[in-house]
């Protein structure tokens, strides 16, 4: 079945909506160069659901996507003020980005590695210092998939930036982002307002 992506949707959310695994949805869409980057209006294929394509492991609730050690880590979304940042042209100069992944990326066992997995570069190839933060999974387990990023200083108005996420970003279960991106970094390009 064909499906037209709506604003704010990710492959993970679409998989939940249609009762298929994220892996099955990605496999049904080989035309997607980067499954973490889909856009409103894009047409994708939805595989037929069935017992073997349940999006959650047996006994798990919908708040627990993935099965530890059984599938790679995926980048789900990046938002600022609730809006998708990918390709946006009106990002504030003092943004606070919320990045979502499909596994626990904030546990203390992986945080030292993950905090170093982000770079922001301007169109003039200038590195932008970042504050990378989290809510510890021992404080609020429901936020274990979220990383927050803020530039240390305001960004330059009317400038294009590229945020890169290292393929070495790791989940608590030991999977790396590179396992779902063929070893490539995830890059998000946006432009500041002004």
Automatic annotation (TrEMBL):
Residues 1-46 form the LysM domain. GO terms for molecular function: lytic endotransglycosylase activity. Keywords: Signal. This is LysM peptidoglycan-binding domain-containing protein. It comes from Pelotomaculum isophthalicicum JI.
């Amino acid at each position: 079945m064909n499906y037209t992506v709506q604003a704010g949707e990710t492959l993970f959310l679409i998989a939940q909506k249609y009762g298929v695994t994220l892996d099955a949805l990605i496999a049904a869409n080989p035309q997607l160069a980067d499954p973490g980057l889909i856009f409103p209006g894009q047409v994708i294929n939805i595989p037929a659901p069935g017992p073997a394509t349940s999006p959650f492991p047996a006994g798990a609730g919908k708040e627990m996507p993935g099965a530890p050690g059984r599938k790679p880590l995926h980048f789900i979304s990046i938002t600022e003020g609730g809006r998708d940042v990918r390709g946006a042209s009106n990002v504030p100069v003092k943004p606070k980005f919320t990045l979502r992944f499909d596994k626990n990326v904030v546990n203390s066992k992986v945080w030292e590695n993950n905090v170093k997995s982000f770079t922001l570069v301007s169109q003039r190839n200038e590195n932008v210092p970042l504050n990378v933060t989290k809510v510890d999974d021992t404080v609020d387990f429901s936020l274990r998939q979220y990383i927050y990023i803020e530039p240390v200083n305001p960004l330059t108005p009317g400038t294009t930036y590229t945020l890169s996420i290292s393929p070495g970003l790791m989940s608590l279960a030991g999977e790396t982002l590179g396992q779902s991106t063929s070893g490539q970094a995830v890059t998000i390009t946006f432009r500041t307002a002004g």
